[in-house]
């Protein structure tokens, strides 16, 4: 049997090692047996204590790999850019399936500034308080078909960076405020990014972007930063109206103590950090009247 590393660092394991290396004399075999039995008993109690203490903490996902996809349609009507978006995400060995429908529009206030207002209908979102009591243990509540309504506003300034090599670089900053009617959660998302536009004969061919996003809770979570992730995206323009994109991101998510755990006096608070590689594939459609 392989002994876990954390057990090997305990004083009890050290005592057992010393007994093995320096056995007691034959005149006191009973003492050796008593020491061994006491050490093994204490070790078993420690193991049981650790198991009991961690039962209220969400386990790490079975896989550190997730997948997401989207279909987005943009319309260009003067200064208005209406949006229709369908999203899908699969995580935790397909145990968590997220779906969304987003409707809204951007409005161009300035050549370098857009603002927008949007509504999102979503199912399968997972929150801190979805870690619920189930008998003497805890489990994730199934939110696969739970419907939630989210509203958010968007401010997106962008600036051309002519001093960069190639001259076709753009810096974009997205700042969004979200409100969920399901649990009244409010949060900010901030996403700065740098994009290179490969243009041939005044027509875009490829966009290459590197972005970093922060998820900042306002009235929930014990963490200042609920989630954050860098991601790399490549968008290929099949035609002026259709684009295909692929992305790779590395997300860090911080779970905080759920309501059910807080209400149970036998368990303490916890903070659980989960890291996931996210692979994305999507399509973008552009329409003009």
Structure summarized in a few sentences:
With 289 residues, the protein is α+β, with helices and mostly antiparallel strands. Helices cover 16% and strands 54% of the residues. It has four helices and 13 strands.
**How many distinct beta strands?**
13
Distance between the termini: 71 Å
Structural class by SSE content: alpha+beta
Gyration radius (Cα, Å) is: 27 Å
CATH superfamily of the largest domain: monomeric porin ompg
For the sheet with most strands, the description reads: 11 strands, mixed, barrel
Find the CATH topology of the largest domain: Porin
CATH domain class name of the largest domain: Mainly Beta
Shape: elongated
How many domains? The number is 2
Overall pLDDT score: 86
Helix fraction by DSSP (H/I, runs of at least 4): 10-25%
| Helix-strand string | HHHEEEEEEEEEEEEHE
Please report which band the strand proportion falls in: under 5%, 5-15%, 15-25%, 25-35%, 35-45% or over 45%. Answer: over 45%
Poorly predicted regions are 23-27, 38-53
Strand order of the largest sheet: 1-2-3-4-7-8-9-10-11-12-13
Number of helices: 4
Instruction: Identify the CATH architecture of the largest domain.
Output: Beta Barrel
């Amino acid at each position: 049997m392989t002994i876990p590393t954390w057990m090997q660092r305990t004083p009890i394991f050290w005592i057992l090692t010393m007994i093995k290396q320096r056995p007691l004399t034959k005149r006191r075999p009973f003492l050796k047996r008593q020491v061994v039995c006491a050490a093994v008993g204490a070790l078993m109690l420690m193991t049981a204590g650790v198991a009991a203490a961690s039962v209220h903490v969400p386990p790490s996902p079975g896989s550190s790999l997730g997948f997401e996809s989207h279909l987005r349609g943009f319309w260009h009507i003067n200064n208005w850019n209406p949006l229709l978006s369908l999203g899908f995400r699969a995580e935790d060995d397909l145990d968590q399936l997220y779906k969304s429908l987003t409707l809204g529009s951007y409005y161009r206030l300035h050549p370098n500034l857009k603002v927008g207002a949007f509504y999102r209908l979503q199912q399968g979102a997972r929150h801190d308080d979805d870690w619920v009591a189930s008998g003497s243990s805890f489990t994730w509540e199934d939110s696969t078909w739970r419907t939630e309504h989210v509203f958010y506003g968007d401010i997106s300034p962008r600036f051309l960076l002519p001093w960069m090599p190639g001259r076709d670089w753009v810096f974009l900053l997205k700042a969004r405020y979200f409100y969920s009617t399901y649990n009244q959660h409010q949060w900010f998302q901030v996403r700065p990014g740098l994009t290179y536009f490969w243009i041939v004969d005044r027509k875009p061919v490829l966009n290459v972007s590197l972005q970093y996003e922060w998820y900042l809770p306002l009235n929930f979570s014990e963490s200042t930063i609920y989630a954050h992730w860098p991601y790399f995206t490549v968008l290929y323009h099949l035609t002026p109206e259709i684009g295909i994109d692929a992305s790779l991101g590395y997300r860090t998510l911080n779970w905080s103590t759920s309501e059910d755990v807080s209400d149970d006096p036998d368990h303490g608070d916890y903070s659980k950090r989960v890291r996931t590689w996210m692979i994305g594939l999507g399509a973008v459609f552009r329409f003009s009247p």
